[in-house]
């Protein structure tokens, strides 16, 4: 029997196929996975590697449109796949539970948090309502939620994203399960919030001795959480080893390539590049009497270099990008481009000014019209700004496709026929087609896998070297800043808190907010989270 | 290059087309029925044994026999011939109505969604006012004022229907207008006609085409209802609504001929809906890029 081996979860040779357009393709190629009681296993891989499919299979769940074609899933000696659906339902929530990536999408917005937390226990008649509520409050407290006694009366929209993610963890832990599957629980959060959530999850899991599968694409995060790491790719296992071993000495080349991504650093440029754009005393607020979203912004974008703007969500970095693009009209301040004053509103800017400043949106999924082919998308700025027609357009489109390392054979594709990274390249190519001097890149790599990110960052660096474009690069990720920036501006609550050359901003002494931001970015050392928490505790004690 | 060339499946262009071969059985039946209706409407003069308004028999309300396949009406006209001509009139008017209502309502809806602001508010409230009045009663009032000629009928129903089309096209266009590719078009300095034609319309076409099928059925029913009330298509023009009205008096005497034109309306409505269902299914699949 499986339980004799002491394994809580035992997946053997699991094969899962998925259907799209009437064709079945294999998502998991016979994967093995074992998990002991109280062990935390990290599942790492790019999107499409089969991490989530495997994680859901641990719950005995298969997504609609998928089927199991082989293998077994045993949980505590019970064959989950052979079990009738009604018995599986009983196990889920009570002995196995799941924490999804987007807490906001997983809660019912019409109900308060506490009833949703206790729902499973009450539904399964595991405990009386009164007890269930007390247990829930105890869980809230363990997950370090503020005001644990009353937070349950709030509705999902009334708490922050990080708090909601912790409430969801409380919900998953409510019945004292033996196994929790965490599917990218902190991916959507800001780095400073992520630290708190990671710490809370780790403590709660350790205290209860719960086994967990932690799915993520972020290696530094999984290094903090997992005892053992499994690296997956294309539905197969690449490498599996204890965390410290796999971090210190990865065996497979693919694993090493994942590790190497974080080490991309732009070489230091000789300074003193002429300014392309200067912004002085810029204010912006939404609505006539709204709070200021931007206040007293003064900065210079050097020609042919990259200015990275770093900050958390709500810091105003994207708003600043939109002001420069002319989408938001500032309430005060002035912008000059190449010494000439830039009209604030888009409709006041000439065609040539619109050509010289291009905005590349974060999400290529919504920035590319799904009904236009790659060639049509890239051709439009050529027709509009450069008056190219017919053959000349087609030739230039092919050139641009070569520049973004895709090649002319992609010209006839629709965006839905491209991968995420390819879509983002096309999005960038459309900006390049205009022939801009300044390209505003709004988080263009943040939704992508790390290897793909690296490819795009390298491409942007090459393009800059070839064409001398300046980038106004908006990002929340410090490793992206290292990879692409010459100058850095740190923003918080609509203000610039620190700015200067990259080397200066990223090395001490820091502004306190920069310090917090840098300190919250996970590092690959397994002890990183422990160290950060200890340092913060010491800091708090010193203050009081 | 290596790591981004493998992500996307190579999809050929033809997989995106709406091929009839992929239609479900129900959709195929719908298509065959609609095709038969269209042929009948087109070739009515060749198919009908008697003229549309020709009094062919001296006996009113004659029961079906070898000459008069469905019997005669109150004036001794051949019911079968009138049913065939009715297809032409009813469907022609419904089609004209729907085309006009889609051109007007669809275009105004998209413009309203893309422009937004006070233009959108003004048009939307105006449409609310028209929609607040029950459609059939409004049509009756307008028709009794303007007189019930066929052009009037088409224009009035088209106007009333276009408010519904406006609502649908505005709401789907709003979703598209919120997309970043519209913002990108604004940033390039594209003009409104280009944005509507190239960026918005291709994305809302599937919904609009499906809606077209449904509205076509409704227009049909509205005309039939108006004819039934005596303000629609005027005698001696044959249409199915008036045929139902004329035969309705007979139901008290156990004569069930009214079910023949009524059935013709019902079968067409169902068939069009079968096609629309299939199209919607297919189009949502296309939109998701599958």
UniProtKB/TrEMBL annotation, chain A:
GO terms for biological process: peptide transport. GO terms for cellular component: plasma membrane. Keywords: ATP-binding, Cell inner membrane, Cell membrane, Membrane, Nucleotide-binding, Translocase, Transport. Residues 11-259, 279-518 form the ABC transporter domain. It is found in: Cell inner membrane. It comes from the Bacteria. The keyword Nucleotide-binding applies. It is a peripheral membrane protein. Its main location: membrane. GO terms for molecular function: ATP binding; ATP hydrolysis activity. SUPFAM superfamilies: P-loop containing nucleoside triphosphate hydrolases (SSF52540). Pfam families: ABC_tran, oligo_HPY. Belongs to the ABC transporter superfamily. NCBIfam families: PRK10419.1. This is Nickel ABC transporter ATP-binding protein NikE. It comes from Paracoccus litorisediminis. The lineage of its organism: Bacteria, Pseudomonadati, Pseudomonadota, Alphaproteobacteria, Rhodobacterales.
From TrEMBL, chain B:
Gene3D superfamilies: MetI-like (1.10.3720.10). Its main location: membrane. Residues 87-280 form the ABC transmembrane type-1 domain. It is found in: Cell membrane. PROSITE patterns: ABC_TM1 (PS50928). One of its GO terms (cellular component) is plasma membrane. It is a multi-pass membrane protein. Keywords: Cell membrane, Membrane, Transmembrane, Transmembrane helix, Transport. It comes from the Bacteria. The chain crosses the membrane at residues 25-48, 92-116, 136-160, 212-233, 253-280. GO terms for biological process: transmembrane transport. Coiled coil: none annotated. Signal peptide: none annotated. Belongs to the binding-protein-dependent transport system permease family. This is ABC transporter permease subunit. It comes from Paracoccus litorisediminis. The lineage of its organism: Bacteria, Pseudomonadati, Pseudomonadota, Alphaproteobacteria, Rhodobacterales.
């Amino acid at each position: 029997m499986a339980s004799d081996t002491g394994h809580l979860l035992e997946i053997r040779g699991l094969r899962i196929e998925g259907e799209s357009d009437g064709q079945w393709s294999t998502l998991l190629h016979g994967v093995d996975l074992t998990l002991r009681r109280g062990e935390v296993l990290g599942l790492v891989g790019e999107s499409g590697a089969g991490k989530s499919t495997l994680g859901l299979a641990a719950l005995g769940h298969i997504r609609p449109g998928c089927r199991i074609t082989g293998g077994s899933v045993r949980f505590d000696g019970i064959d989950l796949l052979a079990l009738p659906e009604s018995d599986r339902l009983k196990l889920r929530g009570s002995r196995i539970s799941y924490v999804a990536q987007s807490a906001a999408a997983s809660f019912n917005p019409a109900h308060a948090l506490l009833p949703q937390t206790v729902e499973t226990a009450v539904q399964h008649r595991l405990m009386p309502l009164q007890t269930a509520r007390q247990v829930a409050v105890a869980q809230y407290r363990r997950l370090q939620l503020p005001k644990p006694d009353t937070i349950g009366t709030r509705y999902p929209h009334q708490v922050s994203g990080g708090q909601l993610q912790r409430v969801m963890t409380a919900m998953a832990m409510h019945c004292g399960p033996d196994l929790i599957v965490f599917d990218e629980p902190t991916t959507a959060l800001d780095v400073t919030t992520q630290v708190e959530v990671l710490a809370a999850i780790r403590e709660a899991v350790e205290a209860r001795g719960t086994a967990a599968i932690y799915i993520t694409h972020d290696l530094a995060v999984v290094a903090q959480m997992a005892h053992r790491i499994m690296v997956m790719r294309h539905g197969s296992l690449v490498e599996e080893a204890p965390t410290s071993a796999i971090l210190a000495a990865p065996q497979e080349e693919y694993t090493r390539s994942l590790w190497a991504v974080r080490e991309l650093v732009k070489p230091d440029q000789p300074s003193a590049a002429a300014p392309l754009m200067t912004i002085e005393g810029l204010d912006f607020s939404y609505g006539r009497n709204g709070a200021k979203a931007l206040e007293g912004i003064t900065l210079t974008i050097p020609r042919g270099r990259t200015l990275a703007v770093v900050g958390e969500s709500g810091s105003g970095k994207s708003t600043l990008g939109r002001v420069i693009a002319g989408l938001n009209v500032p309430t005060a301040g002035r912008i000059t481009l190449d010494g000439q004053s830039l009209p604030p509103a888009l409709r006041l800017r000439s065609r040539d000014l619109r050509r010289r400043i291009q905005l590349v949106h974060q999400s290529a999924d919504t920035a590319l019209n799904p009904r236009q082919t790659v060639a049509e998308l890239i051709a439009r700025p050529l027709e509009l700004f450069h008056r190219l027609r017919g053959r000349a357009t087609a030739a230039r489109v092919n050139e641009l496709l070569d520049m973004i390392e895709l090649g002319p054979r992609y010209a006839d594709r629709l965006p839905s026929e491209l991968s995420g990274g390819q879509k983002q390249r096309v999005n960038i190519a459309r900006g390049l087609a205009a022939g801009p001097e300044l390209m505003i890149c709004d988080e263009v790599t943040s939704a992508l896998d790390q290897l793909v990110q690296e490819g795009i960052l390298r491409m942007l660096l090459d393009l800059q070297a070839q064409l001398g474009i300046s980038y106004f690069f908006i990002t929340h990720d410090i490793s992206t800043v290292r990879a692409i920036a010459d100058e850095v501006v740190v923003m918080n609550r609509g203000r610039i808190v620190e700015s200067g050359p990259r080397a200066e901003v990223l090395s001490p002494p820091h502004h306190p907010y920069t310090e917090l931001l840098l300190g919250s970015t996970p590092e690959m050392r397994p002890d990183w989270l422990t160290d950060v928490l200890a340092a913060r505790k010491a800091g708090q004690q010193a203050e009081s | 290059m290596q790591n981004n060339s493998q992500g996307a499946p190579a999809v050929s262009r033809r997989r995106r087309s709406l091929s009839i071969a992929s239609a479900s059985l129900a959709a195929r039946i719908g298509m065959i029925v609609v095709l038969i209706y269209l042929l009948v409407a087109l070739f009515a003069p060749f198919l009908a044994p008697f003229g549309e308004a020709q009094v062919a028999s001296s006996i009113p309300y004659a029961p079906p026999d070898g000459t008069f396949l469905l019997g005669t009406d109150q004036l001794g006209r051949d019911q079968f011939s009138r049913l065939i001509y009715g297809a032409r009139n009813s469907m022609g008017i419904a089609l004209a109505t729907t085309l006009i209502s889609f051109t007007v309502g669809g275009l105004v809806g998209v413009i309203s969604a893309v422009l937004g602001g006070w233009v959108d508010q003004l048009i939307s409230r105006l449409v609310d006012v028209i929609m607040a009045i029950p459609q059939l009663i409004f049509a009756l009032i307008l028709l009794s004022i303007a007189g019930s000629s066929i052009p009037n009928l088409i224009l009035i129903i088209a106007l009333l229907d276009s408010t519904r089309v406006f609502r649908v096209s505005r709401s789907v266009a709003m979703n598209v207008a919120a997309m970043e590719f519209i913002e990108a078009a604004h940033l390039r300095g594209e003009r409104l006609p280009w944005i509507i034609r190239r960026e918005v319309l291709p994305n809302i076409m599937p919904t609009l085409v499906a809606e077209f099928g449904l509205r076509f059925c409704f227009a049909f029913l509205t005309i039939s209802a108006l004819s039934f009330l005596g303000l629609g298509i005027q005698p001696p023009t044959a249409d199915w609504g008036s045929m139902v009205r004329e035969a309705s008096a007979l139901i008290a005497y156990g004569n069930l001929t009214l079910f023949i034109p009524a059935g013709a309306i019902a079968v067409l409505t169902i068939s069009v809906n079968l096609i629309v269902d299939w199209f919607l299914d297919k189009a949502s699949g296309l939109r998701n890029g599958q």
